[in-house]
Each structure stands twice: as structure tokens, then as C-alpha cells.
Design goal:
Largest sheet of chain B: 8 strands, mixed
Helix content of chain B: 25-40%
Protein name (chain A): Coiled-coil-helix-coiled-coil-helix domain containing 4a
Biased composition (Polar residues) (chain A): 115-124
Oligomer: heterodimer
Distance between the termini of chain B: 22 Å
Keywords (chain A): Disulfide bond, Mitochondrion, Oxidoreductase, Protein transport, Redox-active center, Translocation, Transport
Strand order of the largest sheet of chain A: 1-2
Number of helices of chain A: 2
Shape of chain A: elongated
InterPro entries (chain A): CHCH, CHCHD4
Organism (chain A): Kryptolebias marmoratus (Mangrove killifish)
Radius of gyration of chain B: 31 Å
Chain lengths: 135, 642
């Protein structure tokens, strides 16, 4: 480990090798409160409801087909059927009908992953709780 | 987090399945405006014959005259009615055309599908310069050229909603984020965005980064850029079909977001809950967001130097500035950027890269000792400056501009220390002046330290008025009162304002971040208060070829750096690059973490060429703890790994 101090004395510079950082950190972090009302909750709120404002939903809940999407997804979310969402066909159908009117907002992606900025995208490994959306 | 992952993964196929490929041309019948002219009943009078023959004749004449008179009156009235109804039909149909085009002002890439509104014909040609047509004709949209025609800006406004539940003043990132947040939380919400720009909401970072690196020669028209993996995206947040027509806002069954472009709010009546536009229209609201951003600061020396100098100067912020600077960069020999901060340095690097092909001279001058001198500690600022020079930029540091003159079609910049720089064009990137024009009429407080509207921790200025984005000076309950001019902050604060406008009472808590890439070797992400006047502790490891921004995007599979932290996008596994031999140089600040301290508490962190670790940084800031040994904290970042 190499330590330097800038000329002004204000800035410290430390060079570390991989070995220097091998031992686990003893820095203490405060445990996260899962019920913290201020924290961004992710897709599901602490009370079990859907967080329509989740960045992971993209613009689905706020676009022109937002209400149809909310109805379909809510039905799916609360579905207790064997095949989850099997009783929600009507809602999905009306959502599909709405989306067909806006092909440049809701494009069909046949085989590849969704690339449109308005489709809900699979979440990457980093905590989406702490990410903010770029839209 | 996992729940979201699984639920989204399960749901995504269903959603994808439901938006099918068949394009149905939905055409609603145009407004039926045929007015059946009302018939004027012709008065008929009948009386019993009174007296003798002479009287009879007189009487007959009288009746005859009355009859002819009424008939004439009836015919004249019918004719007039018919004319009026025809004219009214014309009026209404042109107004419908105009307002449809008014909204669909994005580049023609988005015009491929006929929208749900009955539109005369889809625009197929790339947006051409508008040949100023008379108001009645269906004009190609003026908005894309950035110069709204007189006809459009004086289009009759009495069809606009006179009241909107949610009014958002300003059409930038914060406003769009708020609109989305409101729509997500308030089912069927009707949101009206009023912007003085001719464009629909768009994101700014690519204007000084990705758009300059695009290979597409028509990039200034399409404003799209291809990422390394072929994924393209527009700088516009949403295509025009996402929005609804302001005229239709009132009647929209499920609400929507409407954007009124090229209109400025000039007066705000807080007690009456209404605003006045520059065309004298009044719109009342229930909740209002002010997200007016700011305008680029100019230098007094430039303002004083006269027309010829100002003609050759760009104050960079908007789409039209990008377009004009791109054009200038192809036609001049030398461009000088005044300013050494984020924008100035990014533009310098972008233009510097182009200079290798075109032979353009790129000069960057600033009063500090090195690039990002107000942000990075001196040793890092110096190191960064060397890297920027490698991008082909001529750096003139410790430069204070004394005067600027135009001689023989060239600009001469005289510096206070006597140096003279001759150049063809100046780009001023010396800061942002927050737009607080409405403060006076609205009676809103302006902050004297940071500028901008003063708001509380929940971004509220007064009842029913919130402020977000660059113009908001807010109370951060962890870091104190501040004003932040970064993209992610606009998103975070816009979302928060939208949440609070729909009933949440949440303070600013989720800390926003920012990033900058200065060429392929220097990229960093930062969070919190990053001010070079604060004491810092930097912990560095040696760099390998894997640690550059380019490598970071390839690994995380997100393509452009703008996305890798802030957007949830599909990540595809990428084979890791074979490790290059490590560079053994003690002064090489390849990658590391820099902590900014205030009273021994970490208030800001820079992740230097270390990516995808922002959550840890955010956690440390949020905790606000005093750490005895920052090297131990640095271990949490695993800087030696990818």
C-alpha cells in the first residue's frame, strides 16, 4: 500500500494492490430497513400492491394503454389460479387491442429481447431499488 | 429486487405476446361538421278581406310586398348561413390538421404508422425547411425546424383546455419524468405540458456525447444513434403517438399526456391557480409543476463584443444548438470552447475526435488549472487534462478572457495574461442560469446562494406548486440545501414531484448520480457533493484494458453509458475480454474510488473507471457515518475486479 499526500495537504492518495484489499472490509454499514417508507420499493410495495411507478415497468402504466395494462397486470398479480392469470384473458385481450393501435410504442418483438423503451425490461442484477430510470 | 426480477420475467412474455405485429389502420371518422342550415319559416299572414275593391288592391299589394320581402329575407339568410357553415367546416378541419401536426413534431421516423387521430396524410419525406405557407393551408410541421411559423404560434387557442388537473411548465427531462409518475399513480390522469421549445421532451446527455460519435450522416435529422450492439434509440423519450392532442385532453376517457409546444408561460396567478401564456390564453390548474430548467450562461465579454462575435458563438444546450454546431464543425477550421467543466470537456473531446479526420483545430480554454478543476482534486484534474489533450484538443489553462473581436472574418480572443487566440467559432460552456422568470408574478422565493426556486424537502414551493430539475433549489435531508444540474437528478426529482403531486409526501431521499466520459480511457460515475474544495481521499488500483468505459458497456451489455446505471435494459451475456498485461506505473490513476468529505463524513463519491457499483456508493452516502479508515470502505467496491 502506498500513501501520498497532495501538496496542499488536502487530498490523500492511496495505491492498493489486490493483496491489500484481500481481507474483507471492516467498515460498518447500517442495516437497511425493509419498511423504510422513503426508499424506492421496487415492483411490489410493502403492502403487496403493485408499484406502478417502478422504473422496471418503463412507460407501460403511463402510456395510452396504461389503464388496460394496469387492469391486466393487476388481475394477473392477484390471480390465485393454478395457472396464474388464466382468468385474465379478457383484460389481456383488451390490452392487446389497445396496443395494436400504437405499433411504434408497443412493437412486436418476436424472438429477441424487448428493445423498446416502453416495454418492461428484464431487470439486471444490480439492485433496481436503487436505480433511477432513464426512460 | 428478486421479486421484481421474477415477476417481470414472467410477465414480459405475456406483454410481448399481446402486442402483435399486425398494423391495423385505425381511422376514426373525421368530425362530421355538416350543419343543416336551418330553415327560416316564411311568415304567412292571412286576413279576411276587409273592404271594397280599392282596398282589396291596396291590400293585395301590401300582402304581395310582404311576401316578396320575406322571401328575399329568407333567401339572403339561407345564403349567409350556408356561407358561414362552409367557412366553419373549413376552419375546423384546418385547425384539426394544424393541431395534429402541432403535436406530431418529432422527426419523421415516427410517422410510419397512421395514428389514432384522423390525419390527412402521414409525412413520408424527411422534414424539410418549411416554406412559410398561409395559415389556412396544411403546413408541414414547423416544429422540427425549430422555427415555429407565425401562423402556428398564433393558432386559435380557444380550443385548448381552459383547465387541466395537472399542469407542467417546461418540457424537459424533469417534466416528462413527472408526467409519467403522475400517470402511473393517478389512473386516467390528464396532464398538460407547456414548453417554449418546438420539440417534444427529449434527453440532453447524448447531445454532447453519443450523437457526435454516430456514423449516420443524417443523425442531425433523426437524432438517433446506434449503439455498439446495433440497438438504436432516439433522444426523444417517446414517439409522438404516446402523447394526445391538447384539444382532446378534456374528453380523453383514460386521460393522457398532452404537450403544447412553442408556447411560453409568462404569468402565474397563484391565488387563482392559473397561468397565462404568451398568446394571452389562460389555463387554470389543480396542481402545477415548474420545471423550466435554465438557459446557458453567457460571458459578459462576449455580450459586449457585438453582433459579429455573437454570430460566431454557440451557447450550447438544445437540439438546435447541436444541429448548428455540427454544421459549423464541418465548415470552419478552428473552434474554441470556453469552459472546462462537464459540458465544455465533453464537447471538446467529441470535437477533438472528429478533428482527426477533418483537420479541425479544437481549442479549449478555462480559468482553472485543468479540466474539471472544480470537481476533481488537482492531481486527478491534471491527469484528466493530459488525457483530453490526447483526444486532439489544444488546452489553454489558467485563461481568463479579456476581450473578443472579429477581424477579417476571424475571431480574436485576447486573454488577460496577454495571450491571443485566433479562431473561427466559439462555444461557450460556462454554466447554466436557472430560469426563474415566473418567480415575480407567482410570488415564489428565489434562492440567493444557489439560484433557482426555493423549495422544501418535498420539492414544494407553495400549495399546489412544485419545482423539479435544474431550476429547483431544494433541501436534501442528508446533504443539505442544494441545486443539482444533472440528468439523473432531473429524472429523480421529476418522479418525486409527480409522486408528491399525486398525494405522496416523500422527501428527496433517493440520491441521484451523474457520469461523464471523456474519451475512451476516462470515464467516471459520481454521486453526492463532488466539489474539489473539499478534502478528498482517493484509493486507486492499477488499470487494465478491461477498465475503460468502452469495456464497461460491452460487459454490461447496455451499449451506451447513458443507460448502464439508470435504465433497466436487457443485459446479454458478453464474453469477457482477455486480460491485458497490467500497467505498472505509480502515477497512473487507472481506476479507483475517491471520497469527498465534509466534517469527516463522506458526502460525495466518484467511481473512477469503476462501473456498476453505484448502489454501494449510494448506501455509503445515505448512511452518513464517520468512517475511521476509508481504505476499509474502499474495499467494499472491489476495485480490482471487473
Amino acid at each position: 500500500m502506498l500513501l501520498f499526500l497532495s501538496a496542499s495537504g488536502k487530498d490523500r492518495i492511496i495505491f492498493v494492490t489486490k493483496e491489500d484489499h484481500e481481507a474483507p472490509s471492516n467498515a460498518e454499514l447500517i442495516a437497511d430497513d425493509p419498511n423504510d417508507p422513503y426508499e424506492d420499493p421496487g415492483l411490489i410495495l410493502p403492502n403487496g400492491d403493485i408499484n406502478w411507478n417502478c422504473p422496471c415497468l418503463g412507460g407501460m402504466a403511463s402510456g395510452p394503454c396504461g389503464s388496460q395494462f394496469k387492469e391486466a397486470f393487476s388481475c394477473f398479480h392477484y390471480s390465485k389460479e393454478e395457472i396464474k392469470g388464466s382468468e385474465c384473458i379478457d383484460q389481456f385481450r383488451s390490452m392487446q387491442k389497445c396496443m395494436q393501435k400504437f405499433p411504434d410504442l408497443y412493437p412486436q418483438e418476436e424472438d429477441k429481447e424487448s428493445t423498446s423503451q416502453t416495454e418492461p425490461s428484464p431487470v439486471s442484477d444490480s439492485a433496481d431499488k436503487t436505480k433511477s430510470s432513464f426512460y | 429486487m428478486l421479486k421484481c426480477n421474477t415477476v417481470c420475467k414472467r410477465f414480459a412474455p405475456l406483454v410481448r405476446a399481446s402486442s402483435t405485429v399486425c398494423r391495423q389502420n385505425v381511422r376514426r371518422a373525421g368530425l362530421n361538421n355538416v350543419r343543416t342550415p336551418t330553415c327560416v319559416p316564411v311568415a304567412r299572414m292571412s286576413t279576411e278581406p276587409l273592404g271594397g275593391g280599392g282596398d282589396n288592391l291596396k291590400y293585395a299589394l301590401l300582402v304581395g310586398a310582404a311576401f316578396v320581402g320575406s322571401l328575399t329575407y329568407a333567401v339572403v339568410t339561407l345564403k349567409g348561413d350556408h356561407q358561414r357553415s362552409v367557412k366553419r367546416m373549413e376552419d375546423i378541419s384546418t385547425r384539426l390538421q394544424k393541431s395534429t401536426l402541432h403535436i406530431q413534431s418529432a422527426p419523421p421516423v415516427w410517422f410510419s404508422a397512421p395514428s389514432a387521430l384522423s390525419k390527412p396524410k402521414p409525412e413520408a419525406a424527411p422534414s424539410a425547411e418549411q416554406s412559410s405557407p398561409p395559415p389556412e393551408a396544411a403546413a408541414p410541421d414547423a416544429e422540427t425546424t425549430g422555427k415555429p411559423s407565425a401562423a402556428d404560434s398564433t393558432s386559435p387557442s380557444h380550443k385548448l383546455p381552459s383547465h387541466t388537473p395537472y399542469l407542467l411548465i417546461g418540457g424537459g427531462t424533469a417534466s416528462f419524468a413527472a408526467a409519467r409518475s403522475i400517470r402511473a399513480r393517478d389512473p386516467g390522469a390528464k396532464v398538460l405540458i407547456v414548453t417554449d421549445e418546438p420539440d417534444l421532451p427529449y434527453m440532453r446527455p447524448p447531445l454532447s456525447k453519443e450523437l457526435w460519435f454516430s456514423d449516420d450522416p443524417s443523425v442531425t435529422e433523426t437524432l438517433r444513434f446506434k449503439q455498439w450492439n446495433g440497438k438504436e434509440r432516439s433522444i426523444y423519450f417517446q414517439p409522438p403517438s404516446f402523447y394526445i392532442n391538447p384539444e382532446d385532453l378534456d374528453s380523453a376517457e383514460n386521460g393522457g399526456v398532452a404537450v403544447l409546444t412553442s408556447k411560453k408561460v409568462v404569468h402565474m396567478d397563484v391565488r387563482g391557480n392559473k397561468v397565462k401564456l404568451d398568446d394571452d390564453t389562460e389555463i387554470s390548474y389543480d396542481k402545477c409543476l415548474i420545471a423550466t430548467g435554465g438557459i446557458p450562461r453567457s460571458l459578459q465579454v462576449l455580450e459586449r463584443s457585438g453582433e459579429e462575435v455573437m454570430k460566431r458563438t454557440t451557447l450550447f444546450r438544445k437540439i438546435e444548438d447541436f444541429k448548428s454546431l455540427d454544421k459549423v464543425s464541418r465548415s470552419v477550421n478552428s473552434i474554441t470552447i470556453i469552459g472546462g467543466g462537464f459540458l465544455g470537456s465533453e464537447l471538446a473531446c467529441a470535437l477533438g475526435r472528429k478533428s482527426t479526420e477533418s483537420g479541425l483545430e479544437v481549442v479549449q480554454m478555462f480559468p482553472e488549472k485543468g479540466n474539471m478543476g472544480k470537481v476533481l482534486p488537482e492531481y486527478l484534474s491534471n491527469w484528466t487534462t493530459e488525457k483530453v489533450k490526447k483526444e486532439g484538443v489544444k488546452i489553454i489553462s489558467e485563461a481568463l478572457v479579456k476581450s473578443v473581436a472579429c477581424k477579417d472574418d476571424k475571431l480574436e480572443i485576447q486573454l488577460k495574461d496577454g495571450r491571443l487566440v485566433r479562431t473561427d467559432h466559439i462555444v461557450a460552456a460556462v454554466g447554466l442560469e436557472p430560469n426563474v422568470d415566473l418567480a415575480k408574478s407567482a410570488g415564489l422565493e428565489v434562492d440567493s446562494d444557489f439560484g433557482g426556486y426555493r423549495v422544501n424537502a418535498e420539492l414544494q414551493a407553495r400549495s399546489n406548486i412544485w419545482v423539479a430539475g435544474d431550476a429547483a433549489c431544494f433541501y436534501d435531508i442528508r446533504l443539505g440545501r442544494r441545486r443539482v444540474e444533472h440528468h439523473d437528478h432531473a429524472v429523480v426529482s421529476g418522479r418525486l414531484a409527480g409522486e408528491n403531486m399525486t398525494g405522496a409526501s416523500k422527501p428527496y431521499w433517493h440520491q441521484s448520480m451523474f457520469w461523464s466520459d471523456l474519451g475512451p480511457d476516462v470515464g467516471y460515475e459520481a454521486i453526492g457533493i463532488v466539489d474539489s474544495s473539499l478534502p478528498t481521499v482517493g484509493v486507486f488500483a492499477k488499470a487494465t484494458a478491461k477498465d475503460t468505459p468502452k469495456a464497461a458497456t460491452e460487459k454490461s451489455g447496455t451499449g451506451i453509458r447513458s443507460e448502464s446505471e439508470t435504465e433497466d435494459t436487457a443485459t446479454s451475456p458478453v464474453a469477457s475480454a482477455t486480460p491485458a498485461p497490467a500497467v505498472e506505473h505509480k502515477d497512473d490513476y487507472g481506476k479507483g474510488v475517491i471520497f469527498y468529505l465534509r466534517d469527516k463524513v463522506v458526502v460525495g463519491i466518484i467511481l473512477w473507471n469503476v462501473f456498476n457499483r453505484m448502489p454501494i456508493a449510494r448506501k455509503i452516502i445515505k448512511d452518513g457515518e464517520e468512517h475511521a479508515d476509508l481504505n476499509e470502505v474502499a474495499k467494499l467496491f472491489n476495485i480490482h475486479e471487473d
